[in-house]
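To whoever picks this up:

The parser on our side crashed when reading a file containing two proteins. I've narrowed it down to the boundary between the first structure block and the second sequence. Both blocks are reproduced below exactly, byte for byte. First block:
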Amino acid sequence: MTFQMIFVLILIIAMLGALLLDVARPDMVVFSVLVILLISGILSPDQALSGFSNEGMLTIALLFIVAGAVQKSGLIDQMMTKWLKNSKTQAGSMVRFFVPVSAFSAFLNNTPIVVTFTPVIKKWCEDRGIAPSKFLIPLSYVTILGGTITLIGTSTNLVVHGMLTGTYGMEGFSLFTLAVVGIPIAIVGMIYLFTIGHRLLPDHKGFSQRVKEDSKEYIAEMHVSRSFQHIGETVKDAGLRDLKGLYLVEIIRGSDHISPVKSTTVIEKGDRLIFTGLISTIADLEEIKGLELETGTNIGLNDLKNGTSNLVEVVVSHDSSLTTKTIKQSRFRSKFDAGVIAVHRNNERIKSKVGDIVLRPGDTLLLLAGTDFLEKNQQSNDFYVVSSLDTPEKLKKNPVKGWFSIGLLLVMIAFVTAGVFSMFKAMALAVLILLVTKIVSPQEAKRYIQFDVLLLIASALGIGVAMRETGLAEWIATGLVSFGKPLGTLAIIFMIYFLTNLFTELITNTAAAVLMVPIGMSLAEQLEVAPMGFAVTIAIAASASFITPIGYQTNLIVYGPGGYTFKDYIKVGTPLSILVMITSVLIIYNVWF
């Protein structure tokens, strides 16, 4: 090993550790490593920037806009909601709902699909007395499986395709190259989920459902009487801003609801103060003269809702700027105009003062927010809005524009399939048409693009170049060949699949794919076999994340709302992961080797 190889290997190990421990946002971790490689001279500026001009990465940016236009129409949501309402039995409902959802996931970004349908499924389950946990993990899994069917089904496929065409000068994937493997594993996966997997799923109530049922454990009401010494003073001056274990989330003044409460809000006689946090410490408030605990009002979360506020459930994302800081330090209330009522982690409520909680990816927050919260934050990178317990009326959608967006996507897919356009050209034309026809405004297009994801992909592509240029990928491939060659090519394919899948469970699917593609290409060269087989193996394995909630963002989205624990993913996901691996490897071996 050369010094450069050792240096790059140490950096990659450090990067994997930082990603695993959530030291910072994944895009910032990977970008930091890219900058170090650039400054150290291992990568030239052209090599470091090659990922930012990669066709696959730019195609993903355009797809965000096209998918956003389709999602904006709300037509797919409405169709699937009506379709689900007509279902009666649990097993029949799963088949009826999840088969078309997996088909949608082959052509649309699966993250907004899961975000959209999580509250739909939760409400459907709660109306019928079914635990949402029986449906939400399958929702995530079928979108992952559906995403493996086409080139545009997931960003991972496009990243691998971009590396093949850009870095290695190969032809790359066609639109349906991966369908040879994707369709069989989707069928096998759904059969498993509808039978054995369904029995292994827990019978948990969702976070919001438990909060509604046990509202007395989450909120308490104090009445301001005339003897309160701080009437006419601000919340801050009255000493109600920094209370031990408690958080003033709303003030009810007659028919008015003041939420979120600002430090400058003035306290008046007769105000009803709504607190959340450690309700067991409410005795400290009772010692304040003039504050009386209202025990007979039986106030619940539904009592907090009126024309100006809603209860909304959100899940903190991997790319959130809120992580590593307390809720108070992140200025959550002023930034989002919403108050945090409770925080759940690993299916358990965090029992500490709300403002002192340091948020992590996957945390579920219950917010008291204004009616425009959903509209403002639906595309937020900080969290996924997964439900509103009192969803405000949606803006009236134009069905003609919605059908036009869907039709445009289908036409572009037809052009790509027929070989008229490349995927990049087709999506560029689609975005141009959407902008010219004003179906999507430039501001909306900018909002739909997930720049943190693009930074992660572009930076990771640069690290892949470093692995190839320094010879590190070839060195690792040589070690795998010497170990696996006596066992045969089939064993080597299993090894590549397993390594890629292990990385994607622990870090991110994009980073896993980018790290493994150079190794796969070196392996193909040393074994003197067609590299496409290893490329397909890596693309499928990088997407097939079922064992942990942190490996794939859709798993993270349903984690809190479904009331799941880490063990639930291991119990349900491990058999599925093994089934998908065996099916994939056997098909790949027979088709490409």
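<<boundary where parser fails>>
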Amino acid sequence: MKQRKVQKGLLAIALFALLPLSAMASDIEALLQKAESVRSTDPKAFAAALTGLDEIKASATPRQLRQLRLLKAYQKGITGNYDGATKDALAVLDEAPEVSLQFRAALLVANLAAITRDFSLGLRELEKALSLADQVPETELRHQGYLVAAVIYNQYGQFALGQHYAERLLAQGSSPRNQCIAHQLRVEALYGLNAPDDEAGINDAIAACNGQHETIPANLLRGYLARRWAADGKTSQAIDLLESHLPEIKATKYPWLMGEIHSLLAEYYLNSRNLVESKDHAHRALEEGDKNAYLLPRVTAHRVLYEIALKDNDLSTALSEYRQYAEADKARLDEVKAREFAFQLSRHELQQKNQAIELLQGQNDVLRLKQEVAAKSEQVAKKSAQNNRLLVAMLLLVLGVGAYWAYKIKRVQMMFRKQAQVDSLTGIFNRGHFRAQAETQLARCAAVEREAALVLLDLDNFKRINDRHGHATGDWVLRQVAAACHASCREGDLFGRLGGEEFAILSCGGDLHTAERIAQKCREYLAAIDASAIDGGIPAITASFGCASTKLCGHSFEQLFMHADRAMYRAKAEGRDRICMHEENRPVPLRLHVPA
């Protein structure tokens, strides 16, 4: 399986989850302890210890053989054989009676699954490990489990759980190194929850990591401090902070960290209008950072290069960078959705498992009652009615619970189907479902020679709202716009969000004038949105509209969308807050995204 560098941090945590077990006075035990002590610091010595263990394993105890197999699974993992490592660790998990070995094996599988992006397996094994945590006698091993949980839950976007386990580790007084990483994970979780820690809290966390010479978490924390300063308008201070630590960041040779810092510097230099430095750091983020397409630093780097190319009037480069930015942003959103779906699915599976246990316990109770009745048949005369009623009640309970969970499963399936079709922020169709429905409607219109019209709109200056007032305000604006435009639609019209601040309305049976009337109603409703409650106030909410009809474009969705899109970008180019119609003989402009 293709090696995924983006998760190397998770596998590094797994190193510490394989803690040494109790020592025994034997050559095998001594070699096991040797392998445990060097597994994360000296690969050659680790391999030599495993070779020595293979030569004398015939005299090993079953427990020692299981520990050796787990160490070999770890060795396969760090050399990139993730499938083999996962298979061996799962075998140890199934066979080992020792709770500590089960715990370590489950944590290793969870880390390997995070690397290979087998999200369901990773969450399932993580939860299995956490269910064993209270039974693990080794305090340090238990703490490492909490650390792995915080890392993985943050990676899966479950920041509330990541914060819970990070703070649990901090409260239990673990080792100084664990405290440093727990501080960094807590700050990361709070940032993901849009409730960033205060400046003093971040500085305390950096001090804790500096005390342990942990440069990677310390500089990840500086990245969050820089974000806080930039949000407060201290962009120059944020740049100075990150630039002053670039040498030690580069010395870590950690792609994830280098990509994070360079992408932040690229964005801050762009905001400061230093295009030369901004472009340099954007390229370094792409070259030195993690190469996985779905990571945010790559999205940011391509967006910065696209905006710089626009400012330089380099249209060819701008178009290329915009395409790469759009692809990276879509990959990132798909990754987020996949992890969210895996988390919801794992929670559902856990509920089903718990319910199955409850049903089994109920069936065992029924069986026990039957056995008691058979053993005491001579005493049934007085108690038979009572026992029969209890038996019927238990059976009804089992049937009722089964019916309830069948209903719940159906509801969950419907919820997952809705999530695949509806934009979670605005509640309207997402891009994929809108397109599928639009193609179906257009095919029906073509079959009966019925005209249809498409309206595309893109909010004007939306990026300024996000930059000045934050993403929470931007999300509020998108919801208000969706409600206003939905009210402008006719009955039977399709309405969807295509991504970012772009929306579309398909009106079957409508012509180009119908599309213009719908667009005009949208403009009026957008102008009526009351944003007075926003701190500092925001400018009037406007959009640029492009309209096209099947009369000129045909019933192909691609052709209809292309002409409406060009008309919309013509509206942008002509000054925004206006409606432009597709005209058959009008020259076709180059489609370039104009920054909101």
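After patching the parser it read the second block fine. The mean pLDDT is 82. The radius of gyration is 30 Å.
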